[in-house]
Write a structure and sequence with these properties.
single chain; 99 residues; mainly beta; three-stranded antiparallel sheet; 1 helix; 9 strands; zinc; ZZ-type domain-containing protein
């Protein structure tokens, strides 16, 4: 069952195509990506980074392959497939990565 649908304007934001937020499971991370300096393969989106109150140290990270979005919008759908399972899926509305 769909719990939440959100349309985001991502025009000009960086798309971190190979990275998933370990806070909210959104993939790819759009906008700023924060990589843990302490734990391998631990990344947060800007929203989860702002809310984080743990002991990890993070640095804003940008890779050469991270590109600005060439399209304006992407749809984020949050679904609940069971009592313990929440998933967030980003749907490519109109060739978001320009490939």
């Amino acid at each position: 069952a769909v719990m939440e649908v959100e349309v985001q304007n991502i025009n000009g934001f960086k798309v971190h195509a190979s990275h998933t937020c370990d806070g909210c499971n959104v993939s790819p991370i759009v906008g700023k990506r924060f990589k843990s300096s302490d734990t391998a393969n631990f990344d947060l989106c800007s929203k989860c980074f702002a809310a984080y109150d743990g002991d990890e140290l993070f640095e804003e990270t940008l890779l050469a392959r991270d590109r600005k979005s060439t399209k304006d919008y992407v749809l984020k759908i949050k679904t609940n497939d069971g009592p313990e399972s929440t998933q967030i899926r980003r749907i490519n509305v109109a060739d978001v990565w320009g490939e």
